Backbone:
């Protein structure tokens, strides 16, 4: 095991060298003539307006939160899967309970529309938006 | 495995220097993996051009013969690309975060190469043979996410940041269905070691069909399907290439990168395609086993079968690219969280019941 | 050679952990944490715990670190984060940290350690699975309830809408 992971550590260092060497070659071969326009932020030719470092949408954070919970679940599944053949029905029932509890969680976030990328937050739905309006009302009511 | 072989050879020929032997073995294996990565990207880019040309009836890359289009069959185009990338001016935007901008390619590349190192190319050719092989490859894939977010943030470009955040959200989301479905081969074989997993798949069903996990029961086939689609999504390829959708985000998190730094991303992306295809092949399609049970199996031919199967899966990914339109972000999340994850979870129950009944 | 690698890994871990604490920018702290986690992965490998090492990468780097970075992106005006991260209680913090290190060090030196044979275990994952399903079944099932609680709690707290 030490030898295998030692190889991986070595590969990490080798990766650094293998990327660094061509960068040095590039530095030697490639032209280097920077000017203000070249070093400007690329926004399809428009003058860039302000910094990109602004507050980001919260839904990315929510996705990462839900991901983390299910990631831990997957981690628990791996050792279970290895001994599943050996323990048979017992292992199946035990993991069944575990999975069902977490599926309850999935059902909860599904119902509370945390899994929806676009939130149905329609204030006054008329015409072709009436369905969305109804849906947003039922989610709020639940 | 391969490392041991090289160390033994070194000890026999040169003498007993364990540390030197180990370093030489690692360096040669690493060098081979890097060559594989570079060749894989070059060949894949070339093939991708040809496949797209045939599928969309494009004239350019079809290559009308020498002189007209970058050499015969357009082969020289690939080499021209590589040289161009190496001698291109290296620009770093002024407003970018100078340190993180330079560090990001390293992290993405390392994530790709250490994933590649655990693939079983044949029964005797494998850089590192880990007991936790399957899980390790999944873990290696999750290091790249950090690099992507780093690259996107360091660029200080709106396209880059949006692309990086979308990419990260997409990769982590699709890690769940991929993980849930790669559980299935482990359940059936009872091992996470890739070599043992492949050996478990030797033999045949009814004497004719190969005893690959994807053919062993219907749930396993479903698991393969979910795993492969999730793998395509994890590599950010069309139809899941929302993070770098040209028509809305220019080039996503790679917008500000050029020259060799960009080439590193490119290498890593194609290496990741290879890694996920390799994992799918090892987990579901019998790895280096021949498709005809018990026929033409040997360590050398195993190499051929493994690369053949991986190439086929990569071809399917290219096929996807020129067939399906790009998904929308909300559709992407819908497919992952509301279709794949519930199905993959129920699928585990299905495989379990099947295993308990049929053994 | 293993000793040299161990000291190297330990140095990376401690040094990057120091960077996490001392760095002025929140994002730099988060990215330093990447190296701390990788170092801890290395320490797990030195304990022959290959499964836990991979778990460390999947959960901490692939999950928690991404969550932390997304969390930083959520803060108002990331550019001004550069100044908001400096610590105020340096003196008291140093006293607490040194006291903590001293007591831990005393414990490490004075406790009689069991000297197990330094041999590679055959298959760590299977024994973890057996332990989880046989000896530690209750904690295992309670863990799923904990995860459920964390999921509901976290999504409820992060929900932005006013009246829902």
Residues:
């Amino acid at each position: 095991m030490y030898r295998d992971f030692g190889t991986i550590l070595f590969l990490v260092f080798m990766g650094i060298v293998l990327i660094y060497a061509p960068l040095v070659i590039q530095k030697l071969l490639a032209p280097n003539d920077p000017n203000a326009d070249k070093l400007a932020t690329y926004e399809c030719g428009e003058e860039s307006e302000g910094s990109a470092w602004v507050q980001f949408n919260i839904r990315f954070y929510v996705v990462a939160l839900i991901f983390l919970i299910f990631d831990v679940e997957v981690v628990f599944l791996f050792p279970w899967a290895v001994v599943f053949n050996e323990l048979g029905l017992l292992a199946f029932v035990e993991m069944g309970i575990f999975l069902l509890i977490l599926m309850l969680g999935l059902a909860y976030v599904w119902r509370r529309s945390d899994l929806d990328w676009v939130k149905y937050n329609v204030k006054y739905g008329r015409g072709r938006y009436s369905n969305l309006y109804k849906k947003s009302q039922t989610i709020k009511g639940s | 495995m391969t490392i041991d072989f090289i160390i033994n050879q070194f000890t026999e020929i040169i003498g007993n220097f364990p540390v030197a032997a180990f370093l030489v073995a690692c360096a040669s294996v690493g060098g081979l993996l890097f060559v594989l990565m570079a060749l894989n990207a070059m060949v894949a880019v070339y093939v991708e051009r040809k496949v797209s040309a045939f599928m969309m009836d494009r004239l350019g890359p079809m290559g009308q013969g020498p002189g007209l289009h970058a050499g015969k069959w357009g082969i020289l185009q690939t080499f021209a690309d590589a040289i161009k990338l190496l001698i291109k001016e290296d620009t770093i935007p002024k407003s970018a975060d100078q340190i993180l901008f330079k560090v990001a390619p390293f992290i993405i590349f390392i994530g790709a190469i250490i994933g590649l190192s655990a693939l079983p190319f044949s029964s005797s050719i494998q850089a590192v043979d880990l007991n936790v092989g399957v899980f390790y490859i999944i873990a290696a894939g999750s290091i790249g996410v950090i690099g992507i977010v780093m690259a996107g943030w360091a660029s200080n470009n709106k396209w880059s940041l949006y692309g990086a955040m979308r990419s990260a959200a997409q990769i982590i989301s699709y890690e769940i269905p991929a993980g849930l479905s790669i559980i299935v081969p482990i359940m059936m074989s009872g091992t996470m070691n890739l070599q043992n997993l492949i050996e478990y798949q030797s033999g045949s069903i009814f004497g004719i069909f190969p005893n690959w996990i994807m053919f062993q029961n219907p749930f396993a086939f479903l698991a393969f399907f979910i795993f492969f689609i999730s793998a395509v999504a994890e590599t950010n390829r069309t139809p899941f290439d929302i993070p770098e959708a040209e028509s809305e985000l220019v080039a996503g998190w790679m917008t500000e990168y050029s020259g060799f730094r960009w080439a590193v991303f490119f290498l890593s992306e194609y290496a990741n395609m290879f890694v996920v295809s390799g994992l799918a092949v090892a987990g579901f399609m019998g790895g280096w086993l021949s498709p005809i049970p018990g026929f033409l199996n040997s360590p050398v031919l195993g190499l051929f079968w493994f690369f053949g199967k991986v190439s086929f899966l990569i071809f399917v990914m290219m096929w996807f690219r020129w067939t399906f339109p790009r998904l929308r972000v909300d559709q992407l999340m819908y497919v992952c969280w509301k279709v794949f994850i519930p199905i993959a979870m129920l699928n585990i129950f299905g495989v379990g019941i099947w295993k308990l009944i049929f053994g | 050679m293993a000793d040299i690698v161990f000291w190297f890994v330990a140095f990376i871990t401690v040094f990057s952990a120091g960077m996490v604490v001392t760095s002025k920018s929140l994002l730099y702290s988060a990215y330093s944490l990447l190296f701390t986690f990788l170092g801890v992965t290395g320490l797990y490998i030195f304990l022959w715990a290959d499964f836990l090492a991979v778990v460390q990468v999947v959960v901490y780097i692939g999950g928690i670190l991404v969550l932390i970075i997304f969390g930083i992106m959520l803060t108002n005006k990331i550019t001004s984060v550069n100044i908001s991260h400096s610590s105020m209680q340096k003196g008291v913090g140093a006293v607490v940290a040194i006291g903590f290190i001293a007591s831990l060090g005393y414990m490490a030196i004075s406790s009689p350690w069991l000297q197990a044979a330094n041999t590679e275990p055959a298959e760590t994952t299977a024994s973890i699975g057996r332990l989880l399903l046989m000896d530690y079944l209750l904690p295992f099932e309670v863990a799923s309830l904990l995860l459920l609680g964390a999921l509901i709690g976290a999504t409820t707290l992060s929900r932005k809408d006013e009246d829902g």
Notes: The longest helix of chain B spans residues 18-56. Chain B has two domains: 1-87, 92-358. The mean pLDDT of chain B is 82.
